[in-house]
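Problem: given the chain below (190 residues), write out its structure.
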Amino acid sequence: ANTPQKKMALLSDELNADMQYVGQVEKLIFERNAYAFAEQHPEQTVPVEALWQNAGKGMLGESIDPSETNRKMMDARLMMWDQYIHGPPGYGKGYLVGWAAAPKLIEKLEADPEGFKNTFHAMLKKGNSISAGQFLQAFDIDIHQPEFWQDRLQNMSQTVDQLEQVYKDHVLQSYTRKEEHSNTPPRPFP
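Solution.
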């Protein structure tokens, strides 16, 4: 980015994408609860709406907006994610693992491009016979370790810090520089 405005826009886009992936946690909680309910109560209809609304409470606590507008918005999101009821179990996990693993895989690629390529091709030859965790173990990445997830969340925190710094450096300082302000009064509205 060659301007502070473009840098802020790129950092904001990055954070938005990160939040979308973190949102997969909510969907996985919903999915787990929906399948558990179906197994425990095979004769009953799965209370999709209630399970969906409760899924976010684990992450957001009681800060969820209980208004009718928010409920309708959540219901609309649920309709878009119909695959979490009718699709295969674990649908959202792939997105979440991929998001968390991407920076580590890039590090491995940059450190040893040829070795990375060989390992990557060997893993692709295994097709669907291995899990995402097994695939990443070939690159010495363990999704079962808390550090795997904490490192990615730390990257998000650094992005927030960068965005705040660019904002402070550019936006707040621009209000204190007289040379950037015109001495002409604003035009009246037509």
